[in-house]
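Minutes, project check-in
Item: structure for the 1292-residue chain
Input as provided by the requester:
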Amino acid sequence: MATETNNVEGSAAARLLQQHAENPLRVTVEDVPDEDLKSPSAADAPEKSSWGQTVSTKAAGKQPARDSGSLDTQSHEAFPELGVPKAAASKSNISPIWGGAKGGANGKANGTSWSANGTPRTSTPASGVSTPTGVPPSMSIPGRNVEAVVLEQQYILPRNQLKRPIPDIVKDINRKSRAVISMVPGPNGHLKFEATGPQDKAQQALRDLVQQIGSKTTVRVPIPQSARAHIIGKQGSTIKSIQEKSGAKIQLPKVDESAGNVDDDDDAIIDVIVEGNAISAAVARNEINKIAGERSANVNTKLKSIPIEFYPFIAGPNNRLASALEAEHGVQVRVPPHQPWSASVPQVPAAGQRPAFAAPSNDNYIQLAGERAAVQSARAAIERQVQELQNQLLLDQVEIRQGTHQFIIGDRGIPNEDFFADTNCVVVLPSTPGVDTVTVIGRADDVNAGLEKAMDLATQVHTSVFDVARHHRIASGGAPAYSRDISRYLRQRKEIERLEKLYQIHINTPFSEGIVSPWELYAREGKNALKAQKEMSSIINSHPPSRLATVPVDPFFHSYLRSDVRPTVQNDFGVNLIVPDATEGDIPVLLVYEGATTPEEAYQVPQKAPTAAELAQFQRGLSDARKHILEILNHQEQVSTETLEVPVKYQEKLRRFIKKEQDATTRAAGDIPVRVSVRGTTVTFRGPASSVESLSKKAAVFVEQEKEDEKERGFILKFDFPQKFANHLIGKGGSHINELREKFDVDIQVQNGEVELKGPKAKSDRAKAHIASLARQWADETNHTLKIEPKYHRELIGAQGSQIHRLQNRYGVHINFPKTAKPGKDDESVADAASEAGKPRKQQGPDEVTIRGPKKGADEARDEIYSLYQYLKDNSFTASVGVQQKQLPSLIGSGGAGMDELRQTTGAKIDIPNDRNEAPGAIVEILIKGTKAQVAAAKKIIEEKKAVFDETVTKTVEVDRKWHKNLIGPGGSTLRDIVIKAGGPEDRRLQARTIQFPKQDTDGNSIRIEGRHDVVDKIIASINAVVSERASQVTDTVEVPVEKHRSLIGRGGEAKRQLESQLGVSIDIPRQGSGLTAVKLVGQPANVEKAKEHISSIIKEQQGETIQVPLKYHHAISDNGQFFRKLRNEHKVTVDHAGHAVPSKPKPSTTRASNGALPLITDDVEAAADAHSWTIVDTASTEDGEIPWVLKGNTDNIEKAKRAITAALDQAQKNSTIGYLILPDPSTYRHVIGQGGSKVNSIRKQSGCKINVPRDQARDEAIEILGSKEGCEKAKELILQAVRDGQAGRRE
């Protein structure tokens, strides 16, 4: 059934208003008096009321003129509501659905009722005084109500379609309901039904009746498109509620279906389709109109048909006309500013015709916002103004060199608004290169003035030319090609843009194939053009043709070169790659040599002519880069092109198929994807031959399959689906059902426990199988609600939901934590979700966490979350300690070391807030978290440090800088002693904070002391004492021979430190090699004198005695220094040689190789024992002369040392021989040593020789025997015998 409308010109909103004005809502369902309270005059009337044939004039005026052949969907008589008084309908387009016959406050019934003679009475006035009818007023008993409905014959099912006769149906409902229905036949097959009883029961009884006897009706309800989202409601809640309340089925057009034929602003009209019986359709229609009326009071409209050239005329100079329009109509008017630059040049009309102006092609429209009626009024005013402009405006054109256009309008010209204010004309300038036509649009009296203004502005410019070819006339590709390439390069490097800004000029670089076109320079001041030309000459000279090269490349590879090859060529070869844009046509790729650059440095275009060496370098770099690019391209497949004819309706599906196919194949393999373009019904594939062939074949198969599927689009498959899973199937905002539609290419609708699939049978079967499997999966779903304190939610969720995502992925469940309640937006819904999303969700408590999913996964996820929850409870004890903000650096430590140590020590988590307060006494709360013991330990430590810090004071003491070094002491020793003795910290890091000296590069003598009050006072006292003591010190020297300095210093300075501590002075000994003998003593006078005496006595004791030892026996006696150590350890006597050189030590051969052939290892033990190498060497030196041995020590010890030296000298004179014994098997050396060295010691005693058995026998070392010649021979025999005995014992 179609809605009857008049053909009214104007906007869609105006037509909707006209419809409602011509077909206002009317009510025919009336209130009737209670049958139990009939008036006396009505008692004589027939038992059943008859239908009156006449109505009053007022009532008749309310009846609409209808065409019997069509259905008026706005008619309340055709679609009645139960119990709606007509008075209400006359006041508003929105009427209550239900009404009753209850009396008003004065006891009189409001509304109309059927009179005893069958004539409907007129509506009562607002006062409640009714028109006299000759009968007393009716009364209403509380709890008793009469509801009535009138049905025309066309809305009643034919008799053959009724399951039972209507009277039987009425009796059945009366038997089951607490209301009583009576039926009154009327003319033309009309039936009137009255229900008596409680209001809700009476209304329900009539609904049940109409549900059984009423015919199905389809109604179209026109609404503004802006009200669509409000009709749907959040996730379909509103439309679901209307459907449940009315019993009608409501369908809204999808956005993509209505987008092609309606505007996208608030003024667009769409039709809502309502299906149901007479009552349900009327109820649903009224609810929809009510929402539309409430939600569409304010509108936002775009005027899309107005040419942009009209905008300045509509807005007026300085927007005066638009402001006046706003004030007059009370709306907001936005007129976009006119843009003078246009890609197309307006066409001059033929003689006698008006110019044609096109509507804007972009989204740059005039917008109106405000109340609907005001917007419509303002729109009408603008449309009238547009019509006037269509009849008034003319255009004229003039050819002006394009380079000067920018001096007409723009940054270098005048503002567009000023041009319009001066001339009352708009100017249109071409943006297409090479077009010089300037167009001026205005009224007949203004156009000439506008042209004059444009020409004046353009001719006030200095014009000059710059011949690029003059600098390099001999170019390999010709002068025109060089001019083109150098301009491309300079524009890519934004060098021309820089020159234009620097000199306030415009540079035009025209190009014509085969023709040398000079560059054009336009400037307000001629000298700026001259300056620019000078710099341009330097740039051109620095870029000769040899610095540029070109490579012809198929445009298909341009994007690949730009993204993948260009960075490599720049880094590896120092060549900049300029790839043509799509707008530049078929020109080659340009290569320009720039040299090595770093990413950190912006490249500066050179302005110096290159040398011969540089020119050669250019050629090498360009040649290598060109070769590299050609090698890459030669490895690519040949580019081919194929086309496919595809009807428009399949192109979007084909586009999605191609994208999915290339993502899975070409792009996944890192290859260059095929480029696909569409023009009309022709789809073009261009790319590597194999890829094009494969993709085009797949696309052809896909399109053919779509054509076959199109034949089955009418196939419908319905099956039952659990209603409780409908929301799951639809998904949030319809996301899931839309995904399934796209996946299976079928339309899917969910309604009242049934899924309807519409599409090809095979695809519908696959979709059905998938949806059925989802139902089975959801049927296994289990829901758990966990009670978890909100304070643990954040940690359970994890950073950015990481913890929950892990659990959801592991167990295949959905875990939902409570969120802060936020009001929903009506427009978040979709029409597809309308039928199932109406039920409100259960409110989730703030301490409730829900888990939904398969039973096994849900149970495991629940157990793991509870485990994590318990862990957090056990480890989530917290405490806070407030500390002064200025204490934080000491708590945190250098690089966070102090806080890290505290965390490691206690195991607690400690958080210090980042926010800082600038107040001097600001307190910062440190949060501690962990187990109970960890929190307690960390809190205790921080509170102890806090107590120390709170007691901390800072004082300064003035000390002359000359004493600072003394206070610090060697390595800070004096400073440490002062701090520790005062009770300060032992940690060196804290000690540095306790006493702070001024820096070397600063002035002042102040020493800053920080710590507890008592500690600071003690440190200051110690400093003062040290300074006082140092101030009273004296300095003296004592002469000490250079050779005695070492004895004063001692090993590692130990002797010096002992003397300083013992004597209470500071001792400064001259550096070694300086030749100075004065040792400086600093201290108290008494201590200095005491130290001088003590050092003098030490020197005197250490004068020593010198004895002469023959040079040839020096090494024999010293025994590699062991004899000197023996004297020092046993007799406290040291030996030096008074500066004399020690004689060189003889170097006998000690290796096996020195004696020629080595003894062989054999299996014969006797032979092995006798096989050896033996060498005798006389150790007595042939060097004549003596060497002094200076003995230092006390007198008694020196005498003892002298006796020991004499004995050693006698022994050395006897031990003048050394023997080297080498055995064939190094493993036999152990027999020489014996257990614990017993055997070698026995040999030493028997032979009177010194014997040295090497530790590492594997290195071919010999056994050394030192003694007399006879003793050495004897020792050798004893050693060989020991070896034979050892091997014999091992054999046994």
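Outcome recorded: The chain has 45 helices and 44 strands.
No further action items on this chain.
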